[in-house]
Design goal:
Blueprint lengths: L9 H4 L17 H43 L8 H19 L14 H24 L2 H9 L1 H13 L5 H18 L7 H28 L3 H17 L2 H4 L10 H24 L5 H22 L6 H21 L2
Length: about 325
């Protein structure tokens, strides 16, 4: 492990120089040139196959973790162990990060950040995860996923209130479509309740604050998101361990159905795959491709959520989903210009 001044190794800096062949090194009419062109073609196909695998793995793990967690929270005993559940996922994340930064992967170089400066950030990190889990436990999957979309408008609003950062009229219209679509879709949701709605609002508000803060900390520490997360995950486990006795009701796992326990273990594995695929995606594809994949995941989760909740899709619901997801997609396009 190195300090943050060495966070980007020479090997990482020279990766781009080792990818592909320079065109001036190939003589078009030579056998060597033909062989090299074939190598580049094969390499291109291999890269496309790897990218497709990464997107598929990320999409499957994102969708899978939502429904696994929902099935776990249906158990009344495990629902009372939200902090322990978060610690389990943090532990899995820390293990994956440790593997990812060592051979044969070497996806990033680990750094050691000041613990005192990390404690407030870890508190927010744990808070937004626990609130999102509670939102999933108390609301239907469809409501939970649409509420998460509200994170983007909240980030824009908080940036304006705190930093007076303004956006264009077109972006405002896109964000209004998002908000109106979420309200329109959830206005007749029978599986929503006052507590669930309040938790959902708290979840996307804290998530928005965390996203703004994390962006500043990445600049302050001059590290990547994976390097920062490797410092956050273990420290978050330690911090949460002190509050478990006050908030969690520890249950006898022997009384929990076997299938629920299997889902609990599997959720850790899926969370690890989600983090691993996220690291593999970073730098391999454009922001546009990544955001298209994100919108696809949202649509899949909403569709499966409607089916699992036994909810009939009405015309009002369909219009709301189109406005919410479409508005988020348009915002992404506009914000990249």
């Amino acid at each position: 492990m190195t300090d943050r001044s060495d966070s980007f190794s020479d090997e990482e800096k020279s990766k781009d120089a080792r990818i592909g062949l320079l065109s001036e090194d190939v003589e078009p009419g030579s056998p060597t040139g033909v062989a090299k062109v074939r190598d580049v073609s094969a390499g291109s196909l291999r890269e496309k196959a790897i990218n497709a695998f990464c997107i598929t793995l990320n999409t499957a793990s994102t969708v899978g973790i939502v429904f696994l967690n929902k099935s776990i929270f249906r158990d009344p005993q495990l629902r009372q162990m939200q902090i322990c559940f978060a610690m389990w996922h943090f532990a899995c994340t820390a293990i994956v990060l440790w593997i990812a930064c060592h051979k044969p992967f070497n996806l990033f170089t680990p750094v050691r950040l000041p613990i005192v400066k990390m404690i407030p950030l870890c508190s927010f990190f744990a808070g937004f995860l626990i609130l999102n889990n509670l939102s999933l436990a108390l609301n239907g999957v469809g409501f939970y996923q649409l509420a998460k979309i509200m994170t983007t408008p909240t980030v824009v609003l908080l940036n304006f209130l705190i930093f007076r950062k303004t956006v264009t009229l077109a972006i405002c219209v896109a964000l209004f479509a998002v908000c109106f679509g979420v309200v329109l879709t959830n206005s007749n949701a029978k599986d929503s309740n006052i507590l669930g709605v309040l938790i959902a609002v708290g979840a996307f508000t804290v998530t928005a604050l965390y996203q703004i803060w994390i962006g500043k900390k990445l600049q302050d520490f001059k590290v990547s998101s994976s390097q920062l997360l490797m410092n956050q995950a273990p420290l978050s486990i330690v911090l949460l361990a002190f509050v478990v006795p006050f908030f969690d009701t520890i249950t006898d796992l022997r009384t929990v159905p076997t299938n629920v326990l299997m889902n609990l273990l599997l959720s850790g594995v899926v969370a690890s795959l989600l983090n691993l695929s996220q690291f593999m995606i970073i730098g391999r594809m454009s922001a546009l491709t990544f955001n298209v994949a994100s919108n696809l995941k949202t649509i899949i989760i909403l569709g499966l959520g409607w089916v699992s909740d036994g909810r009939v899709l009405t015309f009002q619901d369909a219009i709301g989903i189109v406005l919410a997801v479409g508005g988020a997609a348009v915002y992404t396009q506009l914000s990249q210009r």
